[in-house]
């Protein structure tokens, strides 16, 4: 059974064809990074406009790559939220139109449920029950997953999402957007304990907080800037603000603080819930050091780790098609009254 997935929740226009909720036949993602780069973050109005331009060619390409036509599709699965409302509207309206014109059943999927289902596209699935850590630009949440449709939120960020902290710190350092991959790369050459940034463990909860860390980086950067300016005055040397080595150390120390908290809290939640599998998803789960450290640390606690391949960590429509397959199989269909929702819990 082939499902066409569509995701336009944020700044990527994505369409994918997935067979039986598990096998990717085609997976097209049109990134808008170039559009938003110069603003250091996503500009919602520009995102919606680009989705309108790209949705038709992206869906077309997904069908072409799969070598199929609409006649071969059993259902269209679209992301209904959470996300940017203008962006979501494009995908939902387009999916409803396709469903109407081609008379194909429609299913609506929560973006977060999609991220959880990215772990089911890798050939080796986590068995229920498992712990899901969704860590992206919009979310940092822990869920107990007891089965399809059975999700219990254990904790979430109280302020910034981890990816948002990466993006804001990158902007502060003048590094560009999206910040996660850039900081990840710079951190590989830095010393993780060069600067002792704070770690908010919020004991007794499975919640997260990253805004204090972001502020600590800002204070540190200002301090380094002042010291370098003073040195410049004393020596008349043309010292440049934040030499590459300093940048590497800030990136590595910031990243180390994020990862320590993510891994510490995720493993603690798994132990508390007596769950022996953890499935990571979302853009930040593409982080090199996070992947290495959790793969090394969790098994020592008797916990198996499931990591999606890098191209399924960030937003994609294969995960929406995979989750949509289960909605379709259990008869949970959407109709033409479907509307996107910017704020939606799982
Ligand atoms: O899942 P995603 O594509 O979109 C949301 O649903 O938010 O995640 C995007 C986020 C951005 O904040 C980006 O900076 C972050 O994921 N990200 C990373 C890495 N790759 C992407 N963060 C840390 N390390 C990475 N390698
Ligand atoms: Zn996402």
Radius of gyration: 21 Å
Order of helices and strands: EEEHHEHEHEEEHHHHEHEHH
Mean pLDDT: 94
Low-confidence stretches: none
Strand order of the largest sheet: 3-2-1-4-5
CATH structural class of the largest domain: Alpha Beta
Helix/strand/pairing category: alpha/beta
What helical percentage do the residues reach?
40-55%
Determine the number of helices (DSSP H or I, runs of at least 4 residues): 11
The major β-sheet equals: 5 strands, mixed
- End-to-end C-alpha gap: 26 Å
The CATH topology assignment of the largest domain is: Nucleotidyltransferase, domain 5
What small-molecule ligands were found?
5'-O-[(R)-(carboxyoxy)(hydroxy)phosphoryl]adenosine, zinc ion
Number of strands: 10
CATH architecture of the largest domain: 2-Layer Sandwich
How many domains, as an integer? Answer: 2
The CATH superfamily of the largest domain turns out to be ATPase, nucleotide binding domain
């Amino acid at each position: 059974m082939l499902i066409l997935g569509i995701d336009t929740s944020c700044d990527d226009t994505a369409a994918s064809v997935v067979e039986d909720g598990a096998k990717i036949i085609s997976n097209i993602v049109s990134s808008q990074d170039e559009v938003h780069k110069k603003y250091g973050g996503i500009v919602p109005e520009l995102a919606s406009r680009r989705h309108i331009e790209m949705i038709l060619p992206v869906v077309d390409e997904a069908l072409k790559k799969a070598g199929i036509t609409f006649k071969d599709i059993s259902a269209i699965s679209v992301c209904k939220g959470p996300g940017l409302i203008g962006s979501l509207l494009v995908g939902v309206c387009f999916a409803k139109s396709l469903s109407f014109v081609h008379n194909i059943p429609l299913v609506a999927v929560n973006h977060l449920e999609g991220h959880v289902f990215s772990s089911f596209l890798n050939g080796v699935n986590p068995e229920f029950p498992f712990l899901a850590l969704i860590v992206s630009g919009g979310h940092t949440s822990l869920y107990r997953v007891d089965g399809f449709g059975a999700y219990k939120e254990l904790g979430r960020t109280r302020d910034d999402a981890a990816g948002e902290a990466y993006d804001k710190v990158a902007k502060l350092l003048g590094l560009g957007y999206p910040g996660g991959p850039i900081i990840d790369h710079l951190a590989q050459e830095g010393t993780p304990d060069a600067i002792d940034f704070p770690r908010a463990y919020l004991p007794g909860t499975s919640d997260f907080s990253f805004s204090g860390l972001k502020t600590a980086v800002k204070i540190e950067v200002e301090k380094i800037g002042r010291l370098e300016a003073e040195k410049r005055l004393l020596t008349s040397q043309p010292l440049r603000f934040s030499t590459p080595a300093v940048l590497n150390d800030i990136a590595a120390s910031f990243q180390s603080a994020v990862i320590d908290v993510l891994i510490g809290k995720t493993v603690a939640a798994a132990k508390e819930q007596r769950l022996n599998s953890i499935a990571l998803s979302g853009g930040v789960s593409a982080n090199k050091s996070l992947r290495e450290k959790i793969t090394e640390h969790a098994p020592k606690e008797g916990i198996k780790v499931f990591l999606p391949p890098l191209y399924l960590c960030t937003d994609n429509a294969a995960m929406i098609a995979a989750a949509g397959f289960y909605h379709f199989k259990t008869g949970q269909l959407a109709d033409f009254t479907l509307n996107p929702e910017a704020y939606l819990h799982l």
